[in-house]
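Late entry, evening session. Most of the bench is empty. Finally got around to the prediction I had been postponing all week. Sequence below, unchanged from the version circulated by S.P.
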Amino acid sequence: MPRPLREYPLAEWLRLRPLIHRLKQARYDAVDARYRRLPARAGDLAAIGASLRGRRAMITVAFADPDAIEWQSRLVRRFVGEALYIVADNSPNDPDAAAIEAVARRDSRPYIRLPYNPWTGHAPSRSHGLALNWLWSNLIRPNGPEAFGFLDDDLFPTEPDDPFARLASQPVFGGLRTIGKRWFLWAGFCFFRFSAVRGLPLDFGQDWFTGLDTGGANWWPLYRTLDREALDLRPAIRAPIVPGISADECCVFWCGSWLHEYGTARRADLAEQKREAVARVLLPLLEEPADRSPPAPA
């Protein structure tokens, strides 16, 4: 949603910014509305929807990275416990989608391939937000889970942790991002008590005109109504990952005990080294016997 008219200074009025922003928003809303009506390209949506009713469900949005999905699925099973884990595939090409579906089937995970996404390749954040809106409209809202959450596919738990536990005492939980006076939950690690949001017109897209990235459009229907200071949330902490390379050049983010690989390195020549460094952290956790003790909040 564009900023309220009172927030535009005179210089922006003279450049017709309020009108331009509203025209662009109308375009984004039209694309979003059309996309939400499209059918999934693969997967039994009705059966998956029935399986999440009354349960805690976390949905990962896969994107052309079968290794990440395999690591995440196995680590979630080990460290997060009984929550239903669903793979929603936003990959643009068939070979990657087939490989991700094979990982999901091998690990007995429900799999959905999302409709062709018009923003993919042009605006990654908008592509991701569109995917989350489709999942909210077609999977989550019609089927009423107890609670639900979204994960980026390159976010990995590294020790026992139940992100749903906080929802016993608050309506939302996840990674905190703050822009000016506004705040929102990062779309790659956000959890919601369904009863607290079921009647809201949630929008997991960007609110770019106020500087809020994917998930930020929920400021208007949800976050602005909550007392930020009363919520226990997790800010992401940037950290280096490749030995001898500063975090400014190549970093990951830690959201509590969850490691976010965060795409590629700022320096393209470090992307492969970054994946290798992340693998060195995760592979020992994948090789150890499963810890069957109940996960506890970090």
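Two things to note before I forget:
The CA atoms of residues 131 and 172 lie 20 Å apart.
The radius of gyration is 19 Å.
Will write this up properly tomorrow.
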